[in-house]
Specification:
It contains 29 helices and 13 strands. The chain is an alpha/beta fold and about 725 residues long.
Length: about 725
């Protein structure tokens, strides 16, 4: 998922202003579809840009827009959230429904998956109940061909009464036919007969009672047959959106209320309540989709998805699913640890060479020492450290994570963990946001938007920091290597480091589940919700697109946010290390004050102070520890881990200190970037404070218990 906020110069967070500001010849087109149908790939292909996302007004639901033109027509494409239905159960479905109904669009393109057209037609048929200005885009035709699925596009078009186009979104040329059909639909002035679902007679009778009254009051501002069904269905969220669209409360109209009461009485006499009515409507949609596909889709192989199912039997099995998942996580971390060392060293050398150049420039202009210290040894040095430590691991981890996402494996992770998250009062989608937190907890918090239930979204947001982000890996890896795997020779050292790091991560997952359960029975009480989890087909990842998307939309964005808070933090750290009260620096005074409390937790005051000063960016915790022990006045780096271990042991570190520091690194307050993101996503200081306090109190309690037991038996 992209993490930026702008799109082609116009804010992507509010599609209303886009429609108001558009040029006269620009047409608004909604791009709709189920999740995992290649909708965003098609969007990127048509607009010639990578996807950028923001929020819809008042909702933490991603939106995206872009521009494209064809045969003299100019379009603003709005990639609305993926949804299975317009009978809204979640914020995403509400956004999709409201934009199609009230968004002022000139046409809708509904993207379907050619390998499971029957299921996708549910959304198509609902959309056609609202508008005839639609094009059905059956995507992934190449996947269907591989599975020996053949679709008669002309026959589907004839039955639906709208253009139907087959595409392969990865191939840009296949979009030409889609744009040609879109031009035709936009240019068509007269109304065409489109497919209408015939419901049970008692439902049709109720619609016939209500529709004429709506026609007198609302005219043709919205499809009246569809509106009649929704009012009979008592869809409260739709009524609210409709009132906003019309500018008045539709149910306050006496004539409409009278007709609605009479229509509902007709249904009641037939034994149809609200729940039964919705079931009947859904059944009508399903039957219509089955009828269309029965005559237009041909399967040469009845077991066309047997290969995927065979793989799933291994990856989602109780016996093999979890071992494979753990081994895969271990492999990703081993690759990240091993591969990041070399570019991190090169980047560090380059950035600190630039520091020497800056120092020379300051001396050349005879700048005062305090100014050089504050700007170069403080701001720049901390900034350079953060970039050198963060960038290489993120540039490796995020593409690997995105490759797993693109290949279709991550939904299987959610499937494997769903049962355990459900027991903890949450749902399996939290597993996906947790995985994203390994790269950056701020990105993981933003990823919580995919969770439909507000209660479960808050649980996932508050507990996301229990998985170590990219910024905590260097400290964890260094401590593991120095105190626990240093006896091994390479390459076994990096392998055992990855094994122990995976164990730490498993502990983080366990704490995530435990605290989620605690929250679900206390401040966030409620039953876990059900959700639709689609296991998409396994696909060959698009490596080029993955690299571009992960580096520009994730890595550089997260790095930029970290750098924004690391720079002022560098100034504060330098000042504390250089301002003296008596003969002692302010940093040592604060460390001494915290020392008794730090000892209770198995650490010391220096380590605790480093965590506090590392609030802007976790990457600088160990450098601050080194700087304080060495009393150097600026962040320094030992030449190798042996020197660092000697420095730490000389200052009282033992295996108890090492494990306590690792535990506190795993469980303490989220960084400032994550806290700001929580505040933005929840729009609440209360939940932001809870997201800060929950991991902090957990870390304090766990460290105290461990240190007490370890000292007792040591």
């Amino acid at each position: 998922m992209g993490l930026t906020s702008d799109s082609t110069g116009i804010k992507a967070i509010d599609c209303g202003p886009v429609i108001k500001k558009r040029a006269e010849d620009e047409k608004i087109v909604a791009l709709a579809g189920n999740p995992n149908v290649g909708k965003s790939t098609l969007f990127n292909s048509l607009t010639g840009m990578k996807q950028h996302t923001g929020n819809w007004p008042g909702k933490t639901v991603a939106s995206a827009l872009g521009y494209c033109g064809y045969a003299g027509m100019s379009y603003v494409l709005v990639d609305i959230p993926g949804t299975y239905s317009l009978m809204a159960h979640s914020a995403e479905e509400e956004v999709a429904r409201d934009f199609i109904c009230f968004g002022g669009n000139d046409a809708v393109v509904i993207v379907c998956d050619a390998t499971c057209l029957e299921r996708n037609l549910n959304l198509v048929l609902q959309t056609l109940e609202i508008t005839e200005k639609a094009v059905v885009c059956i995507n992934l035709m190449d996947e269907a061909k591989k599975k020996k699925i053949f679709i008669d596009l002309d026959a589907v078009s004839e039955k639906l009464g709208v253009p139907v186009v087959g595409t392969t979104a990865r191939k840009k040329k296949s979009a030409d036919k889609l744009m040609e059909s879109l031009n035709e639909v936009i240019s068509l002035n007269e109304k065409k007969d489109r497919f209408h679902i015939r419901y049970a007679e008692y439902i049709e009778n109720a619609v016939r009672i209500l529709q004429p009254t709506l026609e007198d009051k609302i005219k043709e501002r919205i499809d009246l047959r569809w509106l009649s069904l929704r009012l009979l269905d008592n869809d409260l969220s739709l009524t609210e959106a409709l009132n906003k669209f019309l500018g008045y409360d539709i149910l306050s109209d006496e004539d409409i209320n009278k007709a609605l009461t009479e229509a509902r009485r007709t249904l009641s006499e037939a034994g149809i309540g609200t729940d039964k009515l919705r079931d009947e409507i859904v059944s009508g949609l399903v039957r219509a989709a089955e009828d269309i596909c029965r005559e237009t889709v041909r399967f040469e192989k009845t077991d066309y998805n047997s290969k995927d199912r065979k793989i799933d039997m291994i990856l989602t099995s109780r016996l093999t699913g979890f071992p494979i998942m753990i081994l895969l996580v271990m492999f990703v971390f081993w690759l990240t640890i091993t591969a990041a060392n070399y570019p991190s060293r090169l980047l560090s050398d380059a950035l600190f060479w630039l520091q020497d150049v800056l120092t020379g420039a300051f001396r050349a202009v005879s700048a005062p020492d305090w100014l050089h210290g504050a700007l170069v040894l403080g701001v720049y040095r901390v900034l350079a450290w953060v970039v050198a430590v963060m960038l290489p691991p993120m540039a490796i981890f995020f593409p690997l994570f995105t490759l797993l996402e693109d290949s279709g494996y991550l939904p299987r992770v959610a499937f494997n963990l769903d049962k355990y998250f459900k027991k903890s009062g949450s749902c399996g989608k939290q597993a996906l946001t947790m995985c994203m937190g390994f790269g950056c907890n701020a990105a993981g918090v933003i990823g919580c938007r995919i969770i439909d239930s507000p209660r479960e979204r808050l649980i996932a947001t508050i507990t996301n920091s229990f998985v170590p982000c990219n910024g905590r890996f260097p400290a964890l890896i260094a401590i593991i290597t120095m105190f626990f795997t240093g006896v091994f020779i390479m390459p076994f050292q990096s392998l055992f480091s990855a094994v122990l790091l995976t164990c730490v991560i498993i502990l983080g997952v366990f704490m995530t589940l435990s605290i989620s359960k605690l929250l679900s029975v206390t401040v966030l009480k409620g039953l876990p919700s059900s959700f639709t989890l689609e296991l998409p087909s396994y696909r060959k990842p698009q490596i080029g697109r993955v690299l571009v998307r992960s580096i520009f939309d994730r890595t550089l964005f997260v790095l930029g946010r970290a750098a924004m808070v690391a720079a002022p933090a560098g100034l504060v750290i330098w000042m504390m290390a250089n301002i003296t009260i008596g003969d002692t620096t302010l940093l040592l005074h604060c460390s001494g004050f915290l020392d008794p409390f730090g000892r209770l937790l198995g650490m010391d005051g220096v380590i605790l102070m480093a965590f506090i000063l590392g609030f802007p960016a976790n990457e600088i915790v160990i450098p601050i520890v080194i700087m304080t022990y060495m009393a150097s006045g600026s962040i320094t780096e030992p030449d190798n881990l042996s020197e660092l271990k000697r420095l730490l042991t000389d200052n009282g570190w033992t295996w108890i200190t090492a494990i306590s520091t690792m535990l506190f690194s795993l469980m303490h307050w989220p960084c400032s970037t994550t806290c700001l993101t929580v505040r933005k996503e929840t729009q609440s200081l209360k939940w932001t404070a809870l997201a800060f306090l929950v991991p902090t109190l957990t870390g304090i309690i766990i460290c105290f218990i461990f240190a007490s037991i370890a000292r007792l038996f040591s």
